[in-house]
Amino acid sequence: MERNMSQQKTGMPEQDPKARACNFSEVALGYTAEMAIEEAKRCLECKNKPCVAGCPVNVDIPGFIALVKEGKFEEAYRKITETNNLPAICGRVCPQETQCEATCVRGIKGESVAIGRLERFCADWAIEHGICVDCVIREKRNQKVAVIGSGPSGLTCAADLAKMGYDVTVFEAFHTAGGVLKYGIPEFRLPKKLVDVEIGQLKRLGVEIRLNMVVGKIFTIEELFAEGYGAIFIGSGAGLPSFMRVPGENLNDVYSANEFLTRVNLMKAYQYPQTDTPIKKYKKVAVIGGGNVAMDAARSAKRLGADEVYIVYRRSEAEMPARLEEVHHAKEEGIILRLLEAPVEVLGNEKGNVTGMKNIKMQLGEPDASGRRRPVEIPGSEYVMELDAVIVAIGQSPNPLSKNSTPELKTQKWGGIIADDDTGATSVPGVYAGGDAVTGAATVILAMGAGKASAAAIDEYLRNKKNNSI
To answer: What order do you get walking across the sheet with 336-339 strand by strand?
Structure first.
């Protein structure tokens, strides 16, 4: 018999929209212990655990929530970290509403249990109280594995392999570890100190992280094998931006979202002049696209001082791929949505600076290959927006370095590495791949799931290889 309980989630405290639109401090403030216990009591403790099946890394969700309900926060954290090495991150940026929470039985009558908020609470509580992940190494393998990229897929693969007893080295192209967690997601959604804490857990497992190492330039995959690495995982992400291919796109003050967010997040331009990297301040900014990256860019531009920030998206709000929470937060902060519109030209002055953008209005036709209704131009509906900056956030594809330096590594026409869905195995024996390097830009948790699957496959591959050589 169902207990008498609230049909709504326990609310998450947040910064006031007007205040937070002017700072880069975290928007969501997290649950108190009392809030977490109250929310945990909403869990129905289903025997078939559909929420676990909805989690790409198979966290025992009812198990950890039951511990939260009892106030056993350390035990709950350890239950989560049995399968998830990055709970403070996942609790903030995972799209729980389309994964674990989407299958929550509690959601049939009212709102689902706030699984993500509870995961975040447990991770934050553990960090606050100095609790570390158990560093249990199964058995020492005395075999080396290389991981290319220190984003979510690489970090997950490296951690799982280290726990299995392998000597793991992560090769990171940037001067700091974290991948998209550092360069792509703004401080107000994911504080970078939390990323550093999670990476510190990885180092405690004995993983070596080598920075400023661009695989494909400094080392090739073939050279890594020659260095004695028995297997290689490619988790190099999707850092190659897509552009609109319209006139004026090469003007000054037109950014890819990748460049804009990297300057703001990784280089901390929002703290200039306390930091070394400046960023130009604009008054009227348009961000092209409707995904989470577009929301991040728009909300960052607003915090940098822009008076007006527009999201220009060629479909309706219902088709936006961004999380509902991110769209809601953006609108609260004063971001203006220009829906069913698409740029046809970026306009500039004689100095080459942006002065505006010509848009055309759209209407929705029949569904396309993505299942969303195809936007169709309305003839004669063009008009001009006055702007001084444009940020393009219409997608990213994998960097071609690994492909170009390893011709036998098969890739999709658009650049994604072709890898087995279950194991991450590529066309090159001993080389595995996962995350955005395979799928194109997707979610943190899906990348983590791919890293976990590849770690298991690499373990099996190396064990079989060793047994066959005996």
So the answer is: 254-256, 389-392, 284-288, 308-313, 336-339
Decide: pTM greater than 0.70. yes
Q: Which residue, 240, 241, 252, is CA-closest to 346?
A: 252
Measured in degrees and rounded to the nearest 5, phi and psi for residue 67 equal -70, -40
Nearest to 346 by CA among 301, 303, 312, 299: 312
Distance separating the N- and C-terminal Cα atoms of the chain:
59
Which residues are CB-contacts of 370 (< 8 A; sequence separation ≥ 6)?
A: none
Cis status of the peptide bond prior to 17, with omega within 30 of 0: no
Q: What does the pLDDT look like over 34-67, one tens digit per residue?
A: 999 999 999 999 989 999 999 999 999 999 999 9
Listing DSSP states for 144-178 in one string gives: EEEEE--SHHHHHHHHHHHHTT-EEEEE-SSSSS-
CB atoms within 10 A of CB 231: 25
Contact 30, 13 (CB under 8 A): yes
Report d(CA 271, CA 138) in Å as an integer: 44
- Residue 347 host element (H or E): strand 341-348
> Mind listing the pLDDT tens digit for each residue in 103-120?
999 999 899 999 999 999
Encoding tokens for residue 456? 């298991």
Tell me which residue of 51, 162, 143, 181 sits closest to 105, measured CA to CA: 51
Beta carbons within 10 angstroms of residue 45's beta carbon: 11
Backbone angles phi, psi at 363, to 5 degrees: -135, 155
Q: Which residue has the tokens 């003007």?
A: 251
For 396-411, how does the pLDDT look when each residue is reduced to its tens digit (9 = 90+)? 999 888 888 899 999 9
